[in-house]
Amino acid sequence: MNDSYDCLVIGGGPAGSTTATLVAEAGFSTLLVERDKMPRFHVGESLMPETYWTLQRLGVLEKMKASHFPKKFSVQFVGQSGRESAPFYFHDADPHESSQTWQVLRSEFDQMLFDNAREKGADAFDQARVLDVAFDGNKATGARVQRKGEEPREINARVVVDATGQQSLIANRLGLKDEYPGLRKASIWTYYRGARRDAGRDEGATIIMHTKGRKAWFWYIPLPDDVVSVGVVSNLDYLLKGRGTPEEVFEEELENCPAVKERVTIGERCDDYRVLRDFSYVSQQPAGEGWVLVGDAFGFLDPIYSSGVFLALRSGELAADAIVTGLKSDDLSAQQLGSWADEYASGMNWIRKLVYAYYNDDFSFGEFIRQHPQHRKNLTDLLVGKVFHEDAGRMFDDMEPWMAEANQAEEAMSRDK
Ligand SMILES: Cc1cc2nc3c(=O)[nH]c(=O)nc-3n(C[C@H](O)[C@H](O)[C@H](O)COP(=O)(O)OP(=O)(O)OC[C@H]3O[C@@H](n4cnc5c(N)ncnc54)[C@H](O)[C@@H]3O)c2cc1C
Q1: Where are the alpha helices (DSSP H) in 80-235?
Q2: 24 CB under 6 A from ligand 1?
Q3: Ligand 1: centre distance to CA 309 (Å)
């Protein structure tokens, strides 16, 4: 590890590894530090098809194609009564190879991206924690880094990238994090071996299932080695306050969701119960002088549509381009380093609106598409991650009856600014 770099990236998840790879590839000295020992466990196993383009640019598509990760061709929603929507097949909206994606083990996927950053020229260290980011006035100048078993050292950098995920090192320190109203959720999840998998192209599908009464929903994500990731999500208070152990709550919710129960009872649980809060938030600004935020460190949206890794890769890529331009022209201002963020945030907003729609008690995808069949392609596009174009939100005019909460949230967030 040197004392000084053009770019220091904090956090070896998908966002950090993407940024580090592309900045290093452009010829700038880059340090990527991850506090955990790699490979490390992480939730977030289901990819969106639009990850294809960043994976291609990073040069890892062939590795993905050769991997043991199950192929994902669709997502399907099951209502509280057990009624299934027709699967949203990504190929139907766009018959291109990018319409097939994967369900990944994040330990392996993140390790692949981390190694790739090293192969493309970054100095990449795991078990190296950033204790603090150094500022000179408003300008980030580096960080204090401690490798396992060593004394902390000061590393200088022209640009500091915060890719620390939900830790949001810089946004927390500067008090920039705004929570989206009404989305204080939590998850309890575990893994089953030998649980039901559908046949053919549905084998790797993500299934999202409401519990009876719609107080919670389950994800069902097929993984390698006949393992399925199964998690329940609901309001934090409902899920975690005064209801017993995570196991008891999970089992109770399972009883409430025959569609999942029937799938898992033929299998065996093969991991512990895990618990996480998953509040949705965004930082008031994406960048400042000499610093920029990517992935969850910038913003996080509810896990319902599996958008997190896609947004991490995409923001990592966009930020890397802005950093490279800034390093070349010696313009490391907030404007330059955050120049990608307006368009990115408006894409993220379409997904956020869809999140609020899902939590509206009167909304159902199946019913919406039956009433407005012309929007099936638009909806599938959003589920695929095609959110960064002008037409991305055209169906929301017809979704207005279910948008009250989303609109209130938008107003509250802009009032607070
Ligand atoms: C319950 C749940 C389910 C989800 N399901 C999905 C899904 O199915 N599909 C999907 O795409 N997304 C999903 N997500 C979201 C997804 O997990 C994240 O959006 C994604 O991991 C973000 O990537 P990232 O690189 O920004 O952050 P992370 O992957 O969190 O990486 C950040 C890294 O920074 C490191 N770090 C933190 N602080 C420091 C420090 N001080 N010094 C050095 N390193 C540090 C951490 O150890 C970590 O490895 C889910 C999220 C939750 C909560």
Answers
A1: 90-93, 106-119, 169-173
A2: no
A3: 8
* pLDDT, averaged across the chain: 96
Percentage of the chain beyond pLDDT 70 is: 100
Q: Is residue 112 part of a domain?
A: no
Average pLDDT (120-133) is: 98
| Ligand 1: nearest atom to the Cα of 129 | 42
Q: How many independent structural domains does the chain possess? A: 1
Q: Report the pLDDT value the prediction gives residue 417, as an integer from 0 to 100.
A: 65
DSSP state string for 247-306: HHHHHHHHHT-HHHHHHHTTSEE-S--EEEE---EEES-SEETTEEE-GGGTEE--GGG-
129 CB near ligand 1 (under 6 Å): yes
pLDDT tens-digit series, residues 2-11 = 999 999 999 9
CATH number, position 219: 3.30.9.100
Q: Closest ligand 1 atom to the C-alpha of 294?
A: 26
CB 299 within 8 A of CB 312: no
**Residue 86 domain-assigned (yes or no):** yes
Cut 0.90: pTM above it: yes
Whether the CB of 295 sits within 6 Å of ligand 1: yes
Determine whether the shortest distance from the Cβ of 165 to ligand 1 is under 6 A: yes
pLDDT band at 348 (very low <50, low <70, confident <90, very high): very high
Query: Does the residue 13 lie in any domain?
Result: no
pLDDT in tens, 59-81: 999 999 999 999 999 999 999 99
How many angstroms does the Cα of residue 44 sit away from the middle of ligand 1? 7
Q: Domain containing 205: what range?
A: 70-103+184-277
Kindly state if the Cβ of 316 falls inside 6 Å of ligand 1.
no
In this model, does residue 109 exceed pLDDT 70?
yes
DSSP letters for 16-67:
HHHHHHHHHHTT--EEEE-SSPSS---S--BPPTTHHHHHHHHT-HHHHHHS
CA of 240 to the centre of ligand 1 (A): 21
| Separation CA 88–CA 306 (nearest Å) | 14
Say if 246 falls within a structural domain: yes
